[in-house]
Amino acid sequence: MSRLGSEEYPRIAELAGAVSFGRVYPSAVVLGRQSGEIYEDKNALLIWHRCGFAWLPGDCDEGFLGEVSRLKSQFSRRMVLFTHDPRVTEYFEDRGAQVGSRLFFEHRHIPPRGIIPEGYEVCEMGAELFGKLSGQVVPTQFWDDAEQFCRFGKGFCITKNGDPAAWAFSASCDGEEVDIGIMTAEAHRGQGLAYAAAELMLRAVISDGRRPVWACISENKGSRRIAEKLGFEVAGECRIIK
Q1: What is the mean pLDDT of each run of 10 residues along the chain (242 residues)?
Q2: In whole angstroms, what is the distance from residue 26 CA to residue 37 CA?
Q3: Which residues sit opposite 158 in a β-bridge?
Q4: Residue ranges of domains in the chain, CATH in brackets
């Protein structure tokens, strides 16, 4: 298995585009909008987004999966594999990997406006906020730096007394689709702030002429509730391998 240089990405664009779930992430890597690595072996690819999400388009034989497993164990950086192929799931499950499921949503209708509680303010996410946010879901997980984010992405932050309380942003964007990431700081939860920030982001994506997409692990009932309130409906599911 060999790592491809970015000049080779156009050659494998068609195979990469065959991904049927979460396609925005591998597509963003192929297009050079977000960083990652692409490895090739015969008729299969490993597309590994900088956030750790990875896809395996093509014909994944056991030799290829062995090479993926080697990379997975060799690097400290996380690799979460997304697959519909039961052979892939079985291969890694037999070797002790954790297997779960992830839901993918498509947007169907415009939601009600979010309500910003008194004392909170909204601002668009720029370079200053890019590195200021902390938590499990933040732009620095998905983008190399503020310049890359500001060039290809977008986001909104709800603040209180200047401190970030909740935010929604482009976790990935390939020019056609935008995957929306959200988070609320622990001290500000339970006030509808995640929904309010996500609703602003949703409208901005639609206004830009792109398709908003949403995904979460199947156990994340809170994310699913927000998605459905925003007008998303479950459109598919895949296995995730950690």
Answers
A1: 96 91 96 97 95 96 96 94 96 96 96 96 96 95 98 97 97 96 97 98 97 97 97 97 97
A2: 10
A3: 122, 166
A4: 2-97 (3.40.630), 106-236 (3.40.630.30)
Q: Which residues pair with 18 in a beta bridge?
A: none
First-last CA distance in the chain = 21
Question: pLDDT at position 20, please?
Answer: 87
The alpha carbon torsion through 31, 34, 37, 39 (nearest 10 deg) reads -30
Integer Cα distance of 45 and 203 in angstroms: 34
Distance CA 49, CA 55 (A): 9
* Nearest partner of 224 among 101, 83, 48, judged by Cα: 101
What's the pTM? 0.95
The pair of three-digit structure tokens given for residue 202, joined into one six-digit string = 């949703």
Instruction: Please give the Cα distance from 43 to 29 (Å, whole number).
Output: 19
Q: Element (H or E) spanning 122, and its range?
A: strand 120-124
Name the DSSP letter for residue 168. E
Helix (H, G, I), strand (E, B) or coil at 93: helix
Which runs of consecutive H residues, i.e. helices, occur in 31-145? 62-74, 86-93, 127-130
Torsion-angle region of 128 (φ positive above 0: left; ψ -120 to 50: alpha; else: beta): alpha
CA-wise closest residue to 184 among 165, 202, 210, 198: 165
